[in-house]
Amino acid sequence: MLTAPELHALKGQRPSVWITAYDVVQAQVAEESGIDVILVGDSLGMTTLGYDTTIPVTIRDMVHHATMVRRGAPQTMMIVDLPFATYPNEPTALKNAVRIMQTTLANGVKLEGGHDIIPVVDALIKEKIPVVGHLGLTPQSIHTMGGYKVQAKTASAIDRLIADARELSAHGVSAIVLEGIPDRVAEFVTDHIEAPTIGIGAGSHVDGQVLVFHDCLGLSPSLPKFARPFAHMRNNMIHGLQDYRDAVLHHSFPNDAETYHISTREWEHFLQEYKN
Ligand code: KIV
């Protein structure tokens, strides 16, 4: 299993490959595929819980799903999101992060934000909890951002993002997720900080990539511009279930090989006894 210092040391060596996961099967598949880091993201809210945003996701949800993921992928580095409004100050953040670390056996937590969350980052790292940052398009700020929009498109916004990234890196985060920003900005940040940058919708000049499991494998009904489906699971699953339905309607499932049998002798014996 990759450790936080090893993840940091990969910068400049090779890209790290991250995927989100939310349950046992997804975790098993991720581990069997040799993925470096599983992120139990609060995208759980949309992919699995049926919400429109990440805002309703709770610590309880994260604990429930991250525990499943850990059971499915005991050998893979697992980072778990602290969801919306669960790290407003140091004591609350510490309480919630410790709960996640102890109950799910996570290897670290991810938080959205820059300068404003530095005291929280310091408090967690002081308690030996590896922290991953998240800058750019931060879905927990959907309401203040005014929608899922590409960020850091003006000189002043780029300045702010770079200052945040530098500060997070200087305070010892293990990596920073850069979401929904122009590729040049992501490359500049990557070249000017020590922490590895993990991109999602941030182009290819970063230190690693993360994708949402459902986008990566073609399970999502629609895809953002930056995602590539490396498989087409939604269609495969629909075709599979349609074939199953047809086979049942046409009495071709189950066939003889898919059926348990009893010897004729035992059966006749039963019928004889039953009649009597
Ligand atoms: O919640 C999540 O899955 C994330 C990734 C999109 C980076 O934060």
Could you characterize the architecture of this molecule?
The protein is an alpha/beta fold. The protein folds into 2 domains: 4-231, Alpha-Beta Barrel (TIM Barrel), CATH 3.20.20.60; 236-275, no CATH class. Helices cover 43% and strands 13% of the residues. The protein contains 12 helices and 8 strands. The chain has helices spanning 4-9, 24-32, 44-47, 59-72, 90-104, 118-126, 142-145, 155-170, 183-192, 213-216, 233-249, 264-275, and strands spanning 16-20, 37-40, 77-81, 108-110, 131-136, 175-179, 197-200, 208-211. It has an 8-stranded parallel barrel with strand order 1-2-3-4-5-6-7-8, surrounded by 6 helices. Helix 2 packs across helix 4. The radius of gyration is 24 Å and the shape is elongated. The mean pLDDT is 97. 3-methyl-2-oxobutanoic acid binds next to strand 6.
Write the layout of secondary structure elements.
Blueprint: H1 4-9, E1 16-20, H2 24-32, E2 37-40, H3 44-47, H4 59-72, E3 77-81, H5 90-104, E4 108-110, H6 118-126, E5 131-136, H7 142-145, H8 155-170, E6 175-179, H9 183-192, E7 197-200, E8 208-211, H10 213-216, H11 233-249, H12 264-275
Parallel strand pairs: 1-2, 1-8, 2-3, 3-4, 4-5, 5-6, 6-7, 7-8
The structure holds 3-methyl-2-oxobutanoic acid.
3-methyl-2-oxobutanoic acid binds at residues 20, 39, 41-43, 81, 134, 177, 179, 200, 210, 212.
